[in-house]
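Lab notebook, bench 4. Continuing the backlog of folding jobs that were queued last week. Each job is logged with the same field layout so the records can be merged later without manual cleanup. Today's entry covers Ig-like domain-containing protein, a 287-residue chain. Filled in by technician R.K.

JOB TYPE: sequence-to-structure
TARGET: Ig-like domain-containing protein
LENGTH: 287
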Amino acid sequence: MIWCLLLWCVCCRGISSQKVFWEIKDLAITSGGNVTLFCNTTSVPGRKVTWMKKSDVIVHHGLVFYRSKFAEYSVSEGSFLTIMNANETDFGVSYTCIADIFSFDSMLDLDVLNVSVLPNDNDVHMSWNLESRKLLQIYFSGIFPIPHCQIFHKGTNILQTPTTTSERDGYFYNVSVSIVIPYQLELCDGYLDVKCSLNNQTIPVGNKRALPVCNDSTETNDHTVLLIVLGILVLVLLHCVLSRIIECEIRTLINIASTLRTNPKQEMSSLNKSERMETITFLAQTP
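JOB STATUS: finished
OUTPUT FIELD FOLLOWS
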């Protein structure tokens, strides 16, 4: 029975027509996730569909032969084929949908223009090092195509071209992205935010990273200089005031001494005890 079915399918594949065709649905693909193909049979309505992978029949008129790998359901416009837990053995091979005597055969290839294979959360690893100029490293496993990553500080892209190395692993890539901060750039305050994309589709790569508070040494030095200048001004002002007071006191004593020489009894009687003592001492020291 199976051999007859295979022979019938092979014969039907010889009648290729654009009356039926299949296409990929539900982009982007996730590595290890599901891939859905849709066979459009609107030109031959009411016909059940047979699906083949290479020369192997996987679905025939709703009967799925490998239930752990494939699932199928039909609608009036055609048939959906879901490839579960897709891996590299499911790509680079031909898939055929057959309706009535018409068939469509095409390779399921990874095309950088319209297919993106996103990594699982467990396949993305990030390591931060705020103390080093090599600030961040991101590792992607099982991704397609090679991602483009940028790092932002306060909404500004601070590095246009991070260092990216990749190696091909079957149909996918293992990619390492290193972000090295230029020496002239000092980062503090706010957050660092990393954004990576595949074909203009954003890839989640983790949370933002908080930066330490800026220590503005220039502002601190300015305050120190200002305090020193104010201190010097206060000392100079105090010196001037004290010199002025001493000068006034000396002039007063000189005037008193001059008066005492001419009329000592009258002048001394108008002074209190402490003023008399200061005057006597000053006269004793003045020639």
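OBSERVATION: Residues 269 and 282 are 17 Å apart (CA to CA).
SIGNED: R.K.
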